[in-house]
Amino acid sequence: MPVRQSAPNEVGADVANPRVATASANANIALIKYWGKADEELIIPRASSLSLTLDGLTSRTTVEFFDKVDGEEDADVAGGSGSGVDCREIYDYIKSADSLTIDDVPQQGKALDRVSRFLDIVRAQSGLHLPARVVSHNTVPFGAGLASSASAFAALAAAASKAAGMDLSPRDLSRLARRGSGSACRSVFGGLVQWHAGHDDETSYAEPVDMGSLDLAVIVVLVSSDLKPVSSREAMRRTVATSPLYPAWVESCAVDLDEALNAIRQGDLERLGAITEANAFGMHAAMMASRPAVLYWLPDTVAVLRAVDGIRDSGLGAWSTMDAGPNVKVLADARDARAVAAALRERVPQCEVEIHRPGSGVRLH
Ligand code: DP6
Predict the structure, then answer these.
(1) Mvd1 C-terminal domain location, by residue (predicted)?
(2) Is residue 17's pLDDT more than 90?
(3) Cα radius of gyration (the chain)
(4) How far is the CA of 313 from the centre of ligand 1 (A)?
(5) Segment (H or E) for 29
(6) Structural contact between residues 19 and 74, judged by C-beta atoms closer than 8 angstroms
(7) What CATH code is carried by the domain that includes residue 212?
(8) In a domain, 257, yes or no
């Protein structure tokens, strides 16, 4: 069954081919972390989380559903009805024609499979049973704990749903993005964002949180951009299943989230910073207590954590957080960001240091 492919296209609302759309999304850094699923299939988390979407860590993704599969009537392929052909065979065939290119490198195996499975959700929701070509460009290093899956799946959800003819509300788009990667539901929105854990597909979504008087920056300290030894998905599963510290950490998240939201309302960065740092250390403690242990830290991770301590002791506000990788992100007041970055460059000259400001939510082009 050969597939007729149309020419590559990077333009959003193409009149000749309305089944193409391009979207961009930024990565986000969690202040109160998401770590552990209550439902693996729907990606419902064990606890609500809070994040800051950052500028400059972007995925820009084009999704193009091919015109049709040769040898099938439109109605059979797009609607899946009445031909007597086994729909599952057609769907499997359609899926096998999906393609994925990331930063000009064609992908196969796990990466393509994960995107294809996500596209299945879009195909099922939209009724458009066609294969898709996905082309993505990123300014986020992959798999190094810099939230690449958040920007990737937020952009993919927006582009794929639009290309499939769906017009989702921001909340429904966040629910869809969540199915690709949990943290992606937060990247649908800019600035501070809360992901309500909920208990099912309907009730688990993200929404923006008013930043009030806070003027935030995050200084990313790149310890290593090597691929992490254990994927966050696997590490999360292992922590939930084997870490004796995990239940206590989940419990602490609800308290931390309330306190963080209060601190935001009061414009109290010192309080927000302290909770952010404590929550991240709690998550890593729970990971390290897994069996076998999940240890993402490298010697330079500890060097950066100590440097941040020292910077704070010297009177500048700076607080650390870490995700599923060795890199450290430092929360600070935007007005102190340059001074904090300079102090970090002095104290850990071996690490790259980059200042990020709050970024916008998902955008269609
Ligand atoms: C440590 O969203 O990548 O960054 O839902 O399995 O795709 P999946 O996990 P993912 O996990 C992110 C975990 C984290 C903390 C956070 O962003 O809240």
Answers:
(1) 218-351
(2) no
(3) 21
(4) 31
(5) strand 20-32
(6) no
(7) 3.30.230.10
(8) yes
For residue 10, the model assigns a pLDDT of 39
Test site for ligand 1: of 26, 33, 232, most ligand atoms within 8 A of the Cβ: 232
Q: Residue 309: which residues within 8 A CB-CB, separation 6 or more? A: none
Ligand 1 atom closest to Cα of 178?
Answer: 5
What was the pLDDT predicted at 6? 38
Cβ(183) to ligand 1 under 6 A? yes
Do the domain assignments include residue 80?
no
Q: Is the dihedral of CA 107, 110, 116, 119 positive or negative?
A: negative
The answer to whether residue 73 is domain-embedded is no
* Domain assignment of residue 183, given as a range: 20-67+91-364
Render pLDDT for 162-218 as a digit per residue (tens, 0 to 9).
999 999 999 999 999 999 999 999 999 999 999 999 999 999 999 999 999 999 999
| Dist. CA 33 → ligand 1 center (Å) | 8
Question: pLDDT higher for 71 or 307?
Answer: 307
ipTM: 0.99
Answer yes or no: is the C-beta of 33 below 6 A from any ligand 1 atom: yes
Q: Residue 54: in which H helix or E strand, if any?
A: strand 49-65
Q: Which ligand 1 atom minimizes the distance to the CA of 33?
A: 18
**Residue nearest (by alpha carbon) to ligand 1 atom 7:** 181
pLDDT of 340 higher than 90: yes
324 lines ligand 1 (CB under 6 A): yes
Distance 231 CA to ligand 1 centre (A): 10
- The rounded distance, in Å, linking the Cα atoms of 32 and 138 is 25
Atom of ligand 1 nearest to the CA of 45: 5
Residue 42 placed within a domain: yes
